[in-house]
Design goal:
Length: 548
């Protein structure tokens, strides 16, 4: 048995079914021999995205895995790993390393040194005998504490070195370990929440990683406190629920805007409370309760009044129990909060309805989003955006279903990331209608990996908003565009999708938007990877921008 065979057997014991990869690395063959299916991408960044999307949908159990060669393979994967790190995604990375005799010698690229800032944990199997303990530590890091990418570099000479055939016989899958919050802190924070006039729950993706959506719904209903989610946490709370405010990022719907603006107490659960251009800042003057499983986030960007360390599922259960004791079995509130949310949302939608249903040509992206929402059950779908305008156009309007029915991302927001996430999500949830929305600039970055979905029989739908320009850069590149056409883009992506073997269609008539979506959905149900290209305008109107 070689070191890579031992790694492959450990992956199998940990329940890993897929290995996204780009040659050349011998781990691909070893994984295939062990019964782990390799998915070979066209470029490494997308391959990382496939593992990333898989982990998001499975909540890291099992985790997505990506393997690449040393040198250019590891170099090209960096952007994808940075995205996974910024969004706290638990995935395993297996770069090949240079043979030990050349390790660390200029100009040989070292994953061990270069990836240290964008991984939760990084280690090298420097001798074959350490393969089991190294892999055990790596899976322990994947399953415990704050999620994040974990990397194991395997030097090329170690990869093919012999180890005893019984090396992995005693390996047991690593078990997760979680902790509850301090009961005294919970009791004090629960009293603050119940005494508040306008409390809001600020839920992040930690709710999903903890499997705590049911507990969050129960707590919100008990206390009648409205719930907003972060961009990464979108779908942690079902967005059709009467207490759902929707998601808050750089843009938001009016209900989210109004309720957070006037809140006196904000309860952050499973969120990092990170200040970032793609997150919704918490306005000054609020009393803050912050429950997270990582102490690094507490008091990081805000002064926290009630810090709580613990797993979101256990903490929410503690909060429910504490509030029941304080309320004496009663429910807080009279239901008026839900009525106000519905009223504010409807008022906001009424103002947007002319745009959402517009017959203008070229098509507004909002017409595509609205028709998609009317024709696809969000409980049966997994949707993700891409960077730029598609993200800001979709986030406020799309009402996600249950947990992981929407993959929100973007603290590190490389164009094209959504395509890899989409492929990985479909591997993790083959019975879901899995769709990514991207602009033509994003497709230009990674579009050839649509062929990966075709070749690998992964029936996703990619929706391209084609407006022939970098619309989001209109103000930033006005003069250069006037002189040299720097924002102009070209191409026929529907033809390209067809040439790559997929089902594809170009849509120019707004009345054909809904029928085209249904035709594409039928194609995916028939096992085909599908691409819809909508010829759209340079839509520059957005819902409420972050005001705080």
């Amino acid at each position: 048995m070689r070191t890579i065979d031992a790694i492959a057997q450990i992956l199998k014991k940990e329940g890993i079914e897929y290995l996204s990869a780009f040659p050349t690395t011998p781990i691909i063959e070893a994984a295939a021999d062990a019964g782990v299916r390799p998915i070979i991408c066209r470029q490494e960044r997308v391959g990382v995205g496939i593992g990333d999307g898989y982990s998001r949908v499975t909540n890291g159990n099992p985790a997505g895995v990506f393997a690449m060669q040393y040198g250019p393979g590891a170099e090209n994967a960096y952007a994808g790993v940075a995205t996974a790190f910024s969004d706290a995604v638990p995935m395993l990375l297996l770069p090949l390393g240079h043979p030990r005799e050349r390790d660390g010698i200029y100009p040989h690229y070292s994953s061990l040194r270069s990836y240290a800032s964008v991984t939760k944990q990084i280690e090298q199997i420097n001798v074959p005998e350490r393969v089991v303990e190294t892999m055990r530590r790596s899976f322990a890091a994947l399953k415990r504490g704050r999620p994040g990418p974990v990397m194991v570099e395997v030097p090329a000479d170690v990869a093919t070195a012999e180890v005893p055939d019984n090396t992995v016989d005693g390996y047991r899958p690593v078990k997760p370990a979680v902790a509850a919050g301090n009961p005294t802190d919970i009791q004090a924070a629960a009293q603050v929440l119940l005494n508040a006039e306008n409390p809001v729950i600020h839920a992040g993706q930690g709710v999903m990683y903890a499997g705590a959506t049911d507990e969050l719904v129960e707590f919100a209903e008990l206390t009648q406190i409205p719930v907003m989610t972060t961009m990464a946490g979108k779908s942690a709370f079902p967005e059709k629920h009467p207490l759902a405010l929707g998601s808050g990022s750089g843009v938001m719907n009016r209900a989210c805007y109004q309720f957070v603006s006037r809140a006196d107490v904000v309860f952050g659960i499973g969120t990092s409370f990170t200040q970032h251009g793609m997150t919704m800042s918490v306005p000054a003057g609020k009393t803050l309760i912050h429950a997270t499983n990582d102490p690094i986030d507490i008091d990081k960007n805000y002064s926290i009044d009630h810090p709580i360390l613990g797993d979101a599922k256990l903490v929410l259960r503690q909060f429910s129990d504490a509030c029941k004791d304080i309320l004496g079995g009663d429910q807080r509130g009279d239901g008026s909060v839900s009525e106000e949310i519905a009223s504010v949302r409807q008022e906001w939608l009424d103002e947007w309805m002319p745009t959402l249903t517009s017959n203008q040509n070229p098509i507004t992206p909002y017409r595509v989003i609205w028709e998609f929402m009317q024709n696809v059950n969000s409980d049966d779908a997994i949707v993700t955006h891409d960077s730029g305008s598609p993200r800001d156009q979709i986030m406020p309007f799309y009402q996600a279903g249950g947990p992981r029915s929407y993959l929100g991302w973007g603290k590190s927001h490389g164009l094209g990331t959504g395509l890899g996430l989409n492929i990985g999500a479909k591997l993790a949830a083959p019975n879901k209608f899995v769709v990514n929305f991207m602009g033509d600039a994003a497709f230009g970055m990674v579009g050839l990996d649509f062929e990966t979905a075709v070749r690998s029989s992964i029936p996703i739908l990619t929706v391209v908003f084609y407006n022939s320009t970098k619309a989001v850069e209109t103000d930033a590149m006005e003069n250069s565009n006037n002189h040299y056409g720097t924002r102009d883009l070209g191409g026929n992506y529907a033809d390209l999708g067809r040439d790559m073997g997929g089902w594809s269609e170009r849509v120019v008539d707004p009345t054909e938007v809904a029928p085209a979506i249904l035709r594409a959905k039928a194609a995916t149900e028939n096992g085909e990877a599908a691409l819809l290209e909508f010829i759209t305008n340079e839509e520059r109107a957005f819902s409420h921008r972050r005001p705080f």
